[in-house]
Every structure is written in structure tokens, then in C-alpha cells.
Amino acid sequence: MSTESTATTTNAQLFERAQAVIPGGVNSPVRAFRAVGGTPRFIRSAQGAYMVDAEGQRYIDYIGSWGPMILGHGHPAVLEAVQRAANEGFSYGAPTEREVELVEAIIEQVPSVEQLRLVSSGTEAAMSAIRLARGATGRSLLVKFEGCYHGHADALLVKAGSGLATFGHPTSAGVPAEVVQHTMVLEYNNVEQLEEAFALQGADIACVMVEPIAGNMNFVRASVPFMTRLRELCTQHGALLVLDEVMSGFRVALGSAQSIYAKLIPGFRPDVSVFGKVIGGGMPLAAFGASRAVMQHLAPLGPVYQAGTLSGNPVATACGLATLREISKPGFFEALGAKTRRLVDGLEAAGREAGVPLVGDCEGGMFGFFFAGELPQNYKTVMAGGSERFNRFFHAMLDRGVYLAPAMYEAGFVSAAHSDADIDATLEAAHAALRTL
Ligand SMILES: Cc1ncc(COP(=O)(O)O)c(C=O)c1O
């Protein structure tokens, strides 16, 4: 394998080579560009707000590794911390001071969490949080919402049945129907359905898992009445409220989305929180946490088993810790939020100018936009239309050096490394792209 051959290889050649040995040519399906069509870009390197593909084409990056790269790529402080940690050893399979430091740093920003367990992926964290909730409550039923993604554990790959009293159906082959019998799927932001579900089966519900700001159906906020009632019903019925903040955690605010809801709903706090992405700064690291009383159920203290060879990995924790230090600096989220808002406002203005219906929303460094007249409130309305327009817009932007998420149901991410000039260049590209739709 020579470096020269890599330098002259095209994305298409790499994709063909990848497809021979990796299913679909990718190690995570959305990377294959199936939703938008075309050839995935094989990334050679990334720095700051930019990624460079195998053909040397540079893109302004609005994926940020699907959320983690809140500082942009190759932030010097993070790089230095990772290099130092790598010199000290990759993995020990024994505890380290650094993992304690990272957990302390996370807990400091999230008052609902007294104890935390580190794992290696968001999937693992969400799956473990559900087992913990089931173990702590002695109940089996899990409630989730259509359009929220919590990783690819069996019990989570399910779509709603024909009514609340009917079983859901697996959305993936290989998931036995019996496995999803304990998962109930409801409509996001639908208070009535929530009431009905608790009235029907409240005593069996171990937990309700929800993305407080759903980033897996583009960008949809849980409404305040919905979140308020969700909290009340969980408390009334002894079910645990699990906030999946894998995407929103340390991304929409330093205190995560729960800090935003705590300002809007007096006394609001989740029972269990799930984190990932930003807390690892781009390394495989995630976590789930709760009160001490709930976390006591976990092995080795309690009967709920959970473990991991690479959990709390010393290089990953160094990366996460350095990232958290940077984003904890005064003014970080104000600046990031203002920049992201300017991008979303600019996209809406470009839509108006081009006569294309376009609405957007954002919080901190996370954003979404829809080719629609108003912001959707649930999965059905997110998916109601606009996909062809989105796909054309995606490619028109990519051709202009702007890399958006390659599917209309995915959120976008702005980093601290995006400059005003990058936002301007993006908006200029959007004006031109929208005119071609
Ligand atoms: C909200 C949410 N939960 C869980 C996951 C799963 O995380 P991972 O891909 O690290 O397994 C994701 C991934 O995008 C996510 O967005």
C-alpha cells in the first residue's frame, strides 16, 4: 500500500474497493449516501471547520463526526492531551485518575447525575441505561418515541403497532418479535397518547426514553407541555425518565438539554441521563448516569450487570476531558449559539429570497432546517415531504464545498472552529444552491 496510490485515488474508486470488503462500503449505513444518492466522500483529513476528501476537495464540515467535534477538528489542546495520553499507554483494563476526573467534570455540569458509568458508544450507553432502569424498577416495559434514535440495540429497533394496546414491530431483520414486545412506541410531542399509555400500562413501565431535542428526525424540540407531562406521569407511576442526551449533551448547552428544560419547567430533572459524542471529543466514549440510589443497582454493587474492556479508555478520556475544559470556558456557548443562529437565520432568508419554503431551528451548536412552511413536531411531519428538494440541495451544496448531513432527517452541527467567513461562504452557497432547485 503506497501513499502515492492513495493520493491519486478517487472517491468512486475507494467506494468500489470498500464495497468489495465492507458491506455497502461503509461502517455505518448513513455514510453510504443512500438517502441522497451519489458517491460518498472518503475523507483523508480534517482540520478546524474543514474536511478534505481523497481527491483533495475541501468542504466546510457541518457533520462534525455527527456531533462530537464541537471544537472543530484537531484543536491544539485536545491534540496535545491525546498525544500525551497515547504516550502513557493505550489501555490498561484497570482504573485511572483521568476517568474519575472526566466523570467529575461531567457531573459538575449536570446536577441530576450523581454517579456515572463510562462506556464506549452511545448504543452501549442507551442499552445499559434501559437495563439499569428495568433492574431498578423490577419492570420490563420501555416507552420510546417514533423518530428518536437511541442506538441499535434489539429492543430499540421497533416501530409502533396499529394501536397502543398492540405490540410494535421490529424495524430490522434479526430482531425477534418477542424482544420488542416490551417496547411501546408513541408519537413525539403527543401528550394525549402519553396519557393513554400511562393509563393503560403505567404500572408496567420501567422507563420512558426520549431525546429532549430530537436530532435523529432533523431537529425537533420536545414541547414544554409534553416534557412537563412526561415528567409528571413518570413520577406518578414510578417509571424512570431517561433523557438520551447522546447528541444534545454538552452540544446545545454546557448543562445539556436538561438545563434548558429545567429553566422552563420548575424542578425538572430526568432520573437517568445518557451521554456520548461531545464527552468523548471524537473518541469512542459515552456514559450513562443517575442518582446514587439508582446507580447502586449496577455491578459490582448491585445485580444489574454491565461491563466493558475499553470502558473509560485512557486516550478517549483524555480527549473528552480536554474537550470539556475548552467548552466550559466563559462565553463558549454564547458565541457558538450566536454563530449557529446566524447560519439558520441566513438559510431562512435565502429560502425567502429564492421563494422556497424553508424553516430552521437551533440551540447551541446543533441545528436543523426543513423545506416546509413551519417547524414539524413529530416524525410523521418531518418525513411528510421535501426529500427530493433536500437531496438536490444537499448535492448543490456539496458541489459548492459545503458538507451537510446526507439525509433530511439528520441534524447539523456547527463548531467553534467555524469562522464568520465560513458561515458567510455557506450562506452564499445556499443562495446559489436554492436558485437551482
Ligand atoms: C440520541 C442518540 N442516542 C444514541 C445514539 C447511538 O450512539 P452511537 O452511534 O455512538 O452508538 C445516537 C447516535 O447518533 C444518538 O444520536
Note down, in words, how this protein is organized.
There is one protein chain. This protein has helices at 3-8, 11-21, 76-88, 97-109, 122-137, 191-201, 224-237, 256-264, 292-295, 314-327, 332-354, 379-382, 387-399, 420-435; strands at residues 43-47, 50-53, 58-61, 115-119, 141-145, 158-159, 169-170, 183-186, 205-210, 213-214, 220-221, 240-245, 272-275, 286-290, 359-363, 366-370, 402-403, 412-413. It is an alpha/beta fold and 437 residues long. A hairpin with a 2-residue loop joins strand 1 (43-47) and strand 2. Helix 11 (332-354) packs parallel to helix 14. Pyridoxal-5'-phosphate binds next to helix 5.
Q: Which helices and strands occur, and which strands form pairs?
A:
Layout: H1 3-8, H2 11-21, E1 43-47, E2 50-53, E3 58-61, H3 76-88, H4 97-109, E4 115-119, H5 122-137, E5 141-145, E6 158-159, E7 169-170, E8 183-186, H6 191-201, E9 205-210, E10 213-214, E11 220-221, H7 224-237, E12 240-245, H8 256-264, E13 272-275, E14 286-290, H9 292-295, H10 314-327, H11 332-354, E15 359-363, E16 366-370, H12 379-382, H13 387-399, E17 402-403, E18 412-413, H14 420-435
Parallel strand pairs: 3-17, 5-8, 5-9, 9-12, 12-13
Antiparallel strand pairs: 1-2, 2-3, 4-14, 6-7, 10-11, 13-14, 15-16, 16-18
Helix pairs in contact: 3-10, 4-10, 6-7, 11-14
Bound molecules: pyridoxal-5'-phosphate (PLP).
Pyridoxal-5'-phosphate is lined by residues 66, 121-123, 126, 149-151, 211, 215-216, 244, 246-247, 276, 286.
